[in-house]
Amino acid sequence: MCMRRCLVGLTFCTCYLASYLTNKYVLSVLKFTYPTLFQGWQTLIGGLLLHVSWKLGWAEINSSSRSDVLTWLPASVLFVGIIYAGSRALSRLAIPVFLTLHNVAEVIICGHQKCFQKEKTSPAKICSALFLLAAAGCLPFNDSQFDPDGYFWAVVHLFCIGAYKILQKSQKPNALSDIDQQYLNYLFRTQVCLMQQHSVQRTKVGEVPLSLWPHGFLQEVGLKRSRSVFSTYSVVLLAFASHPTGDLLSVLDFPFLYFYRFHGSCCASGFLGFFLMVSTVKLKSLMTPGQCAAWIFFAKVITAGLSILLFDMILTRATVGWIS
């Protein structure tokens, strides 16, 4: 059992490292700064792989009530905000800086538990949260490559993560499994991408291919109502996320659009994102919250350290001090 946990932990760290490095390569080295398309491609691959896994019996997607699915919709909106803002921030910030700001999401969760849920919080956890907040607050003043837009999107990213995890913890026990939640996230993100494509083609919006929906969801949730709700949320979100035709038209000028390394990196990013999701679910199911936190911390340290060797960045002593 111990060996199995170690294997799952190492698999998670490998997927975490490879996913971040691949995304950073596409966003910063190749400069593919079209997050709507890039993350849409990732979620499309992830959704298809999860659907195939469900069809083959490798993953279990349960039928859920309409109320459970509708309750989860705000979290799906936040999921899109997480990946969109995260891509914007990662394209402009060094990975160590990005991960340091990413950790502040735990401060939001801790503050919500302390102030609104009145949970008892240990002094050690409060001190840890304050240290994370201080490190993130001092980082912009010591960053020699300070990018206002990068920090702005990082703040949006961490607030979305904090709100997402709060909603996730507020769900009724056994209402939706982690796989069910992720599947709905994939469906919602695919819906946004389809709407953006249809807005360019000036065709009817708001249709998700029936092949993407499990029969259980179609029967329990109700096809027409679910599609209508997903469409409504997508319209609102798309209005704030980006110009409806901006990325789709601008990408035609991308210099590496027809290069194999670009295609290979995008495909690898999609597959790695899926494997990271699966390994994360497996990690949570086999280990205690403390053990999961330790493996996640280990993965972040390795990723931040190797990124310094692989990507060009300028880190002052003060910056390294606050990051570490």
TrEMBL record:
TM stretches of this protein: 40-57, 69-87, 150-167, 228-246, 258-281, 293-315
Name of this chain's protein: Transmembrane protein 241 isoform X2
Topology of the protein relative to the lipid bilayer: Multi-pass membrane protein
Gene this chain is encoded by: TMEM241
GO CC terms, sorted: membrane
Subcellular location, record wording: Membrane
Taxonomic source organism: Neophocaena asiaeorientalis asiaeorientalis
Keywords: Membrane, Transmembrane, Transmembrane helix
InterPro entries in the cross-refs: TPT_transporter
